[in-house]
Fold this protein.
Amino acid sequence: MIALREMSIPEQNIFMDKQSGKDFNRPQYKKLIRKLKPDDLLYIKSIDRLGRNYGEILEQWRILTKEKKIDIVVLDMPLLDTRRGKDLMGTFLSDIVLQVLSFVAENERTNIHQRQAEGIAAAKARGVRFGRPPRPLPENYHSAYQRWKAGKITGTAAAKECGMPLSTFRYRAEIYEKAHLL
């Protein structure tokens, strides 16, 4: 946002999605595409802000420059400025740079996923628990559980008595049984 504001781009002409750039099925990107007209100029902070999928970045670039007939300026990479070098050599150089940067963007996305998975695995190995901590069992859980196990009340009645959904009651019963077997 800062880089685009520094370019004096009006707020209503800035389109920003809050979701991942893994694909182009993003609401603000779709809105941008609908609004673009031939000879418009599209500023992008960096190629990985456009997307993170090699093939899709190349396809969207083709759609934007060939079908929509707009110019694109990638602020972090001056070689990717379609206003300059419209001759064969300029187009060739910009295509090469685009392909390299698109590859790097997708490769970084793959690396992010791998590092995330490794970090989660390492944390789990250290005993870190993920998610919300479980609520303590209600005081009447043991008696409701015993009557349910003895067949004196239904699971639904036991769950209701404990103030929890049936699925939660059964899930907690499974944990409860394992804890008492140890």
User: Anything to note?
Assistant: The CA atoms of residues 104 and 146 lie 59 Å apart. The chain has a mean pLDDT of 82. The helical segments are 2-6, 27-35, 47-50, 54-67, 88-125, 141-149, 155-162, 166-181. Strands lie at 41-44, 71-74.
